[in-house]
Every structure is written in C-alpha cells, then in structure tokens.
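Section 3.1: Structural characterization of target chains.
Under the original work plan, the team committed to producing a structural model for every single-chain target entering the pipeline before any wet-lab resources were allocated. The record below documents one such target. The sequence was received from the expression subgroup and is listed exactly as submitted; it comprises 146 residues.
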Amino acid sequence: MKASILSFFGVSSWVVSGLLMPGLMITAEPAIAQDICPNAMTQQALNRCANQSQRQADQNLTDFITTYQTRLRSEQVITLRHTQASWELFRRFSCEFQASRVQGGSIYPFVFSLCMGSKATARLTELQELAQCEGDDLSCPAPVRE
C-alpha cells in the first residue's frame, strides 16, 4: 500500500518502503480506530468506518463534478463522463491490486476502502485544480471567468 493512501487518514508513519510493516494489522488497528473511528472496536466496525469515509469522498467528488459540469460545453460534459467512467474502472482495478495482499482476509474491505477513498480525494483535487485554470492555459477545458 502506498503512503498516500494511509496518509489520507493520517497514518503515514506506519509505512515502510511503500508496503505495510509486518504485524501492522495487529499493532496499527487500535491507533487507526482511535484516529479515524474512535468507536470502532472490531474489524467489522473498522471496515464499516472506512467504507463510510470512502462514500463521503465519493460524494464529495460527485458533488464537485455536478457543479463543474455547468461550466462545460455539452461535448465536454460527454467527454468528462466518459473520462470518469474510465477512471472509476481504473480506480477499482487499482485498489483491488493494492489490497490483493490481504485478499480473503477480514481486513480486505478496510484496505480496499482506504484505497478507494484516497483515490477519490486525489481525483477531486485534480479536478478542482483543473477548474481553477486560467484562460491563457491552452490545456484548460473551462477557464475561470473573471
């Protein structure tokens, strides 16, 4: 798992060489629960909490896209929708790969949801930056109107 996924939840200090440290599931779970899900006392509760965080990140992304589309021409909206559909597929496969080390384990939904939420947040940041581009930037689909 990459540091960016865990750092999204403030736990980047547990990452060594891009992989989770052996035994992390045992030692880190209580710390993650305390930081992210203070009431989570079981793996199932942690999984639910991570899933809720992912859903919130997804909703933030969806809300932004809905607003951003109002600035785009109709053909750009179609392109953005195609882009998002491709990105969603990439995100799912990428997170399945990232969580494959723990596939079949009770922590899999937790790791998978962390990845999905992190990627949604990164995509939101990417689109927000694109939405702030200036008119002299030729790679700007919809310059900020002044």
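Helices lie at 3-8, 24-35, 43-69, 74-98, 108-131.
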